[in-house]
Amino acid sequence: MTPGARRALAAASRLFYERGIHAVGVDLIAAEAGVTKKTLYDRFGSKEQIVVEYLADRDERWRAYLLERLRRLEGAGSVERVRLVFDASRAWMDDNSPKGCGMVNAHAEISDPTHPAYAVITGQKQWMLRLFTDLAPTQARALMLLHEGAMVAHGLRVLPAPIEYARDLAVELVEREG
């Protein structure tokens, strides 16, 4: 990726997350990145593709972040690994997602399965379900629901410490079934 394209993607990522995908146009992205609209279209082809790149990059960074932490617990039991997923999610949210899960926020704007970004959004959630299935097969769906609900509640800021509360329930569930 050229330096201009990297700046454009960084600007688009920040703007899409802060303001919403539909509220941000290519003119604003170009201006924030210090590039021309031609550069944006030459590199990405369309605003839809910029959205795909933004979400794919965010998903890739999240997966790498979480997998690195899970690698450090190699050999640990399900309870410790489930606890880590929730704790890593809290740290990620604090550092990267003060307005809630970027994928959930994007889905609020992109619910059409034919939109090219839809597969990235749902793919990230399917990956999380597979991860929970690997960690605790019989509780995976419940863990996924606790996790996703906690991410939404964190962004809404209507409950105190929702991720920690969901983590504690998840750990209790895995311990009881374990």
Tell me about this structure:
This protein has 178 residues and is an all-alpha fold. Helix content is 76%, strand content 0%. It contains nine helices and no strands. The chain has helices spanning 3-19, 26-33, 37-44, 47-71, 78-96, 102-109, 118-135, 140-156, 162-177. The radius of gyration is 18 Å and the shape is elongated. The relative contact order is 0.12. The mean pLDDT is 97.
Show the helix and strand layout.
Blueprint: H1 3-19, H2 26-33, H3 37-44, H4 47-71, H5 78-96, H6 102-109, H7 118-135, H8 140-156, H9 162-177
Helix pairs in contact: 1-2, 1-4, 4-5, 4-7, 5-8, 5-9, 6-7, 7-8, 8-9
Offer a quick outline of the entry.
This protein has 178 residues and is an all-alpha fold. The chain is built from 9 helices and no strands.
